[in-house]
C-alpha cells in the first residue's frame, strides 16, 4: 500500500464487489460495495485503517439491516394494476355467436374471443352480456 493510496484500494474492492452483484443478482453485494465506497471516502479524509474498516462494516450492515426487509416486503406484494389475462377476469363481454359448453364467440375488451360457458348445460345467445370468470389459453370462460 506504499505506492497506492488506501482509498484507491477501497474503490477497487467496491468494483470487485459489483461484479458478483451483476453476475448473481444478489443485492447484498451491492450493499457491501456501497460500504467500500464509504470507506474510500473516509480513507481519502485521512483516518487510519481501523476507522476505514469500521465505516465499511457499519455502512454495509446498516444497509443490509434496512434495505433487505423493505425489499422483501415489496417483493411479496401483488401488483396494484392487473395486466394481461388477469385484467380480463371479471370484465363483461357481449356474446357474438351462441356460447355454450362447447364454445362460441364473445367481444371482450374490444377484441373477439372464443368463449365457453362455465356451466356446460347453460347457453348464452347473441347480444347477451356475460361475465368473464377465467381465461384458458385463448378461450374466455363465461357465466
Automatic annotation (TrEMBL):
One matching Pfam family: NfeD
Gene Ontology CC, one term: plasma membrane
Keywords attached to this entry: Membrane, Transmembrane, Transmembrane helix
UniProt membrane topology term: Multi-pass membrane protein
Signal peptide location: none
Membrane keyword on record: yes
Main location as per UniProt: membrane
Compartment(s): Membrane
Record-annotated NfeD-like C-terminal domain positions: 86-142
Transmembrane segments annotated in the record for this chain: 6-23, 30-47
The name this protein goes by in its record: NfeD-like C-terminal domain-containing protein
